[in-house]
Amino acid sequence: MPSPIAHLTAAYVAQRIGMAYPPYPNGETPHFGRRLLLTTATFSILPDIDAVAGLLAGDFARYHNEGTHSLLVGAGLSLGFAGIMAWRRRGFGFWFLMAAGCYYAHILMDAATPGRGVLAAWPISNRRFDFPLTLFYGLHWSDGWISVRHIWTVLTELTFAAVTALVVFALDGRKGAGG
After folding, report:
1. Bridge partner residues of 129 (DSSP)
2. How many domains does the chain have?
């Protein structure tokens, strides 16, 4: 699994996309940008909530990357969240897409990291899915909290974050220049 660095980089990209397409007819509402950033960051990290149980039980591998990495769980949480956000105003589809997009990006990123795969179809299936193409080096929790391999993870993901930010800034610059 990638570290929070990569997952929060995806959240940042989603927040920037969402800011370009606000769901309200009169543009942004007060605190819309902060609310959107909180949403994208939360849903980009939320599948790893099972790690808390692993840390508390002292058995990280047993609890982490289980049912919370399911597309159905992500859809359910995103539907509930979008319903709450759209209760008094429009924007159900917007909030659902933002939440589900970030949740699903997390699952896809974990599947593109070497390891045991993700339970993407849980509870329908206990089969683990992974991609044949590795995009992230990932964390190696079996090495413990302190490991030289974690340094490589941080370096590669900081590079990913920096390149992503440069692309976003370049695209913003083109948009501002009329392109």
Report:
1. 118
2. 1
Mean pLDDT per 10-residue section of the chain, whose length is 179 residues: 93 92 71 91 96 81 85 98 88 95 96 91 95 85 75 92 92 66
User: Between vectors from CA 137 to CA 132 and to CA 142, what angle results, nearest 5°?
Assistant: 105
Residue 50 structural domain: 4-176
Q: Which amino acid is at 145?
A: W
CB contact at 8 A, 131 and 112? yes
Structural contact between residues 119 and 65, judged by C-beta atoms closer than 8 angstroms: yes
Closest by CA to 53, choosing from 38, 44, 65, 63, is: 63
Kindly state the tokens that stand for 160: 């990913």
pTM of the complete model beyond 0.85? yes
Residue from 161, 140, 168, 164 nearest 152 by CA: 140
